[in-house]
Write a structure and sequence with these properties.
198 residues; elongated; mainly alpha
């Protein structure tokens, strides 16, 4: 990255941070370009070099959060020997091991996620979970004997349902405890039984 690229990137980060900071005290709909520029210490022309409007900036902030979330799970160890050796009765697609860190991350960044209530596509949960799908969920579904053609459909069903649930939880300012939310989500996920797929 050359000096100009670095400067461009650092300016974008300043505006990202400015929006996150403003969201702590103001609803997204009331945050103006002027607010962001003042908070970031940049002028309007600089803002327009990077974004067309505040929604573009919000989308970039969400993308960065989703990347951070994905990196967090990418660095987690996945012991495939556990997936391949566990009894089917003890093998679950959704567990606290993944739900708790995910819900905690969202709760810590709820001001940003709350801003996407009217733009649920920005959550981009499928993109965030892509690594987990390939490394964890798909191998588990293989153990259950689910045909490969159904893997993506089943995960879309679960992820879209969980995303809708989480968006409502965020909109309620994450008042319900993370562990309680995790337990409730798990109670909604019906155990997949190998014999049901024959």
């Amino acid at each position: 990255m050359n000096k100009n690229e670095s400067k461009y990137f650092n300016t974008a980060l300043k505006m990202n941070d400015a929006l996150i900071s403003l969201l702590a005290s103001k609803d997204f709909e009331y945050i103006t370009i002027k607010d962001i520029c003042e908070k970031a210490g940049v002028n309007r022309s600089t803002f327009y070099l990077h974004y067309s409007n505040t929604s573009d900036l919000l989308e970039e902030v969400i993308d960065r959060l989703n990347e951070s979330f994905s990196r967090h799970f990418n660095t987690s160890k996945t012991d495939h020997s556990i997936i391949s050796s566990k009894d089917l009765d003890d093998l679950y697609l959704i567990t606290d091991e993944f739900l708790i860190p995910c819900l905690t991350f969202i709760k810590e960044n709820r001001k940003v996620y709350k801003a996407v209530k009217s733009r649920p596509n920005l959550f981009n949960a499928n993109k965030s979970y892509e690594w987990m799908f390939r490394s964890i969920f798909s191998p588990i579904m293989n153990r259950f004997g689910l045909e490969l053609k159904w893997h993506r459909y089943l995960m879309d069903f679960y992820i879209n349902g969980i995303t809708a649930f989480v968006i409502d939880w965020v909109d309620d300012d994450c008042k319900i405890d993370v562990e309680e939310v995790s337990n409730f989500i798990k109670s909604l996920i019906v155990s997949y039984d190998k014999k049901d797929n024959k």
